[in-house]
C-alpha cells in the first residue's frame, strides 16, 4: 500500500466512500461503496423483479427509537431469522454511529452490518480529515445515500432499512430519522420502529408516549415495546434469561452514546413483566 | 542554446538537504515522549485551529513541523491510509510502523526525484494497548526513519532541546512531570511558554477505543502549575496585557477526542 495522495482535481475530500471508489481498495466493491454505478444498474432491472426472500439470508427484525426530554433511546432485539428458522440468537442491531448518534438496522443482516461499518468509518473519517464532526442532519443524509446505493440489492430482496437517531448538538435535542428503500429520508417527531415486529413495537410506544419523558421512563417504554413485539411476532426475540441474552438498549444524549448493561436491561424487563402481572395479563392466552 | 551546468549528485543532495533543513529550522519545535499512561506530544503552536498534532487512528497519532500545507497533506493521506486499511482488514491491523514506512518511502522519493524536497519532519506515535512498549517514529525530510521509545524532538533547535530533554527524562514519569519537562525543554532557560502558546495531545490508556485526546488549555495550565515547585510559580510575573499571544483558547467544540464505549 502506498500513500494515498491525489492530484487536487480528483481529491476525494473528506468522504471515505469517495476515497474507496478512487483507490479501488479491497472492499470497494461493497454495494454501498459505489453509489452511482449501482443506481445506474438498478434502472436496467426488469420491472416486477422485486422482493422475494432469498433463502439462506439472515434477517434482523425489530428496532425501536423514541425521544425523551434530553436525548433518544434506541433498542433492538437480538434475533436473526432465515425463513422460519432462527439464524442467530445474539446478533446486535444497534450500533454507535459516532459519539452522538446511533444507527439501528432491520432487514438483510449481512448487508446491513456492512452498511453500518461503512457508515461508522465514513463519519469518523470526515471528523478526522476535517477536524470537526458532521452535523446530525449531515450524518442522516449520508446514511440516506448509502441506503439508496443499496437499491439494486433491495430489488433482489436484500432490503436494508436503518433507523438513525442522535443528539443534535446544535438544537440540543434528540432526533430520529427513518428511511425507505430508495434512501428517502424522513424525520420522525417522537418515535418510530421498523422491522417485522415494528408495528407492534410502534403501537406500544404510541400508547405510552408523552412529551418530555425522562430517560428512565423512555427506556422502560422501549423495553416494553420490544416485549410486545416479541409476543406477537415470531421473528422478534424476547429476553432470554437462560442464556443471558437481552435486547440491546442504548441512549444518546449530550454526554454521548451509552449502551445499557445487560443486567440493567434485565431489570427493566422484570419491571415490565411485573406491571403486566399486576394488571392480570399474565394468564391470558 | 545554453547547456545545463554539470552539478555533482553529492552537491545536489547537499543543496536539497540544506534547503529542507532551513525551512524546518524556521518553524517551532515539537517533543514527543512516552509517559506512564501512554504517549504525550507537546508542540509550540500559538494557533488554536491549525493543528500540528492530530489523530490518525484509534491508537495512532501524527505530528508535524515545518510547512503547514505540506505536513497537513501528509496527515490527510495518513488518515486515508489508516481508514482504508482498517476498513479492508480490521481495526487492530492498523499500526504506526507500516504507516511510518509508507511516509518514509514517499518523503524519500520526493527528496531524490523532485525539484523541491518537502520541508517537514513528522512523528507517528502509537500507543501500546496492553504494555508500555509505545512507539515513536521520527521521519525526516529525506525519508530517514528513527524509532524511539523514550522521546524524540522535531523542528528547529532540535539538538539543544534534545540535550535538555535527555537530562530530564525518566521512564514511566507522570503526565504532569512529562508536561513540565517537555515545556521547559522547548522553551529553554530564557523563555516561558504558557498554555496558549502550546498544543498538547496524548494517546492514553482508557476504556475508549480512540486513545487520542487533545489536552485543553486549562488542563495544561493546571499541569504546569502543579508540576513546578511553588516558589517558581510564585516568582513568575503575570503576563502583561497586550502581549502578542492569542487570547484564551476554547477547544470545547473540538470533538476529535475520546469516544467512550464506542466498540460495542
CATH architecture of chain A, by name, is 4-Layer Sandwich
- Quaternary structure state of the chains depicted: heterodimer
- CATH homologous superfamily of chain A - what is it? Aminohydrolase, N-terminal nucleophile (Ntn) domain
Report how far apart the termini of chain A are: 62 Å
Assign the structural class of chain B, choosing from mainly alpha, mainly beta, alpha/beta, alpha+beta, or little secondary structure. Answer: alpha+beta
Please report which band the strand proportion of chain B falls in: under 5%, 5-15%, 15-25%, 25-35%, 35-45% or over 45%.
15-25%
Largest sheet of chain B: 5 strands, antiparallel
Q: What is the chain-wise order of helices and strands of chain B? A: HEEEEHHEEEEHHEEHH
Q: Give a quick account of the main beta sheet of chain A: strands, pairing sense, barrel closure.
A: 8 strands, antiparallel
Number of structurally distinct domains of chain A: 1
Spans of chain A of at least 5 consecutive residues whose pLDDT stays below 50 are 25-51
Number of separate helices of chain A: 8
Query: What's the overall average pLDDT of chain B, rounded?
Result: 86
The CATH class of chain B turns out to be: Alpha Beta
Shape of chain B: globular
CATH topology of chain B: Glutamine Phosphoribosylpyrophosphate, subunit 1, domain 1
Number of helices of chain B: 7
Q: What is the helix fraction of residues of chain B, given as a range? A: 25-40%
The CATH class of chain A: Alpha Beta
Number of strands of chain B: 10
Order of helices and strands of chain A: HHEEEEEEEHHHEEEEHHEEH
What does this structure look like?
The complex is a heterodimer of chains A (285) and B (264). About 9% of the residues of chain A have low confidence. Chain A is 36% helix and 24% strand. Chain A is α+β, with helices and mostly antiparallel strands and 285 residues long. The N and C termini of chain A lie far apart (62 Å). Chain A has a single domain, classed as Glutamine Phosphoribosylpyrophosphate, subunit 1, domain 1 (4-Layer Sandwich), CATH 3.60.20. In chain B, the strands form two sheets. In chain B, strands 8-1-2-9-10 form a five-stranded antiparallel β-sheet. Chains A and B meet through helix 1, strand 6, helix 3 and strand 13 of A and strand 3, helix 2 and helix 3 of B.
Amino acid at each position: 500500500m502506498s500513500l494515498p495522495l491525489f492530484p487536487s482535481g480528483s481529491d476525494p475530500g473528506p468522504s471515505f466512500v469517495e476515497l474507496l471508489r478512487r483507490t479501488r481498495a479491497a472492499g470497494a466493491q461493497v454495494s454501498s461503496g459505489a453509489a452511482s454505478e449501482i443506481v445506474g444498474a438498478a434502472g436496467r432491472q426488469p420491472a416486477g423483479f422485486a422482493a422475494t426472500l432469498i433463502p439462506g439470508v439472515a434477517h434482523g427484525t425489530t428496532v425501536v427509537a423514541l425521544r425523551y426530554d434530553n436525548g433518544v433511546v434506541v433498542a433492538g432485539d437480538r434475533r436473526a431469522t432465515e425463513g422460519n428458522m432462527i439464524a442467530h440468537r445474539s446478533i446486535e442491531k444497534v450500533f454507535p454511529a459516532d459519539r452522538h448518534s446511533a444507527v439501528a438496522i432491520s432487514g438483510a443482516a449481512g448487508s446491513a452490518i456492512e452498511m453500518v461499518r461503512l457508515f461508522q468509518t465514513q463519519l469518523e473519517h470526515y471528523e478526522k480529515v476535517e477536524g470537526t464532526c458532521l452535523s446530525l442532519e449531515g450524518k442522516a443524509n449520508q446514511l440516506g445515500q448509502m441506503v439508496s446505493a443499496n437499491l439494486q440489492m433491495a430489488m433482489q430482496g436484500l432490503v436494508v432499512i436503518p433507523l438513525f437517531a442522535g443528539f443534535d448538538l446544535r438544537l440540543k435535542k434528540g432526533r430520529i430519522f427513518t428511511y425507505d428503500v430508495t434512501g428517502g429520508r424522513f424525520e420522525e417527531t417522537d418515535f418510530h420502529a421498523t422491522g417485522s415486529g415494528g408495528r407492534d413495537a410502534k403501537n406500544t410506544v404510541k400508547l405510552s408516549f408523552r412529551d418530555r419523558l425522562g430517560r428512565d421512563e423512555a427506556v422502560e417504554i422501549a423495553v416494553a415495546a420490544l416485549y410486545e413485539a416479541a409476543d406477537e411476532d415470531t421473528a422478534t426475540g424476547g429476553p432470554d434469561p437462560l442464556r443471558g441474552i437481552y435486547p440491546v438498549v442504548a441512549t444518546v444524549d449530550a454526554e454521548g452514546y451509552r449502551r445499557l448493561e445487560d443486567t440493567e436491561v434485565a431489570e427493566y424487563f422484570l419491571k415490565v413483566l411485573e406491571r403486566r402481572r399486576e394488571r392480570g395479563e399474565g394468564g391470558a392466552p | 542554446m545554453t547547456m545545463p551546468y554539470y552539478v555533482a549528485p553529492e552537491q545536489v543532495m547537499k543543496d536539497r538537504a540544506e534547503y529542507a533543513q532551513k525551512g524546518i529550522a524556521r518553524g517551532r519545535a515539537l517533543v514527543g515522549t512516552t509517559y506512564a499512561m501512554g504517549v504525550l506530544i507537546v508542540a509550540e503552536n500559538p494557533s488554536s485551529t491549525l493543528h500540528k498534532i492530530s489523530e490518525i487512528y484509534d491508537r495512532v497519532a501524527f505530528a508535524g513541523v515545518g510547512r503547514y500545507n505540506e505536513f497537513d497533506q501528509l496527515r490527510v493521506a495518513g488518515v486515508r491510509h489508516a481508514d482504508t486499511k482498517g476498513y479492508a482488514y480490521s481495526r487492530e491491523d492498523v499500526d504506526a510502523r507500516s504507516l511510518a514506512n509508507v511516509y518514509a518511502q514517499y518523503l524519500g522519493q520526493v527528496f531524490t526525484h523532485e525539484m523541491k524536497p518537502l520541508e517537514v519532519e513528522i512523528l507517528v506515535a502509537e500507543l501500546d494497548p496492553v504494555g508500555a512498549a509505545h512507539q515513536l517514529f521520527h521521519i525526516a525530510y529525506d525519508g530517514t526513519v528513527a524509532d524511539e521509545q523514550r522521546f524524540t524532538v522535531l523542528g528547529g533547535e532540535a539538538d539543544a532541546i534534545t540535550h535538555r530533554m535527555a537530562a530530564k527524562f525518566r521512564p514511566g514519569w507522570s503526565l504532569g512531570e512529562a508536561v513540565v519537562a517537555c515545556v521547559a525543554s522547548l522553551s529553554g532557560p530564557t523563555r516561558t511558554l504558557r498554555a496558549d502558546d502550546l498544543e498538547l495531545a496524548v494517546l492514553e490508556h482508557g476504556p475508549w477505543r480512540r486513545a487520542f485526546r487533545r489536552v485543553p488549555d486549562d488542563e495544561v495550565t493546571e499541569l504546569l502549575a502543579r508540576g513546578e515547585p511553588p516558589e517558581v510559580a510564585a516568582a513568575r510575573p503575570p503576563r502583561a496585557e497586550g502581549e502578542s499571544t492569542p487570547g484564551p483558547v476554547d477547544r470545547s467544540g473540538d470533538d476529535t477526542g475520546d469516544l467512550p464505549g464506542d466498540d460495542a
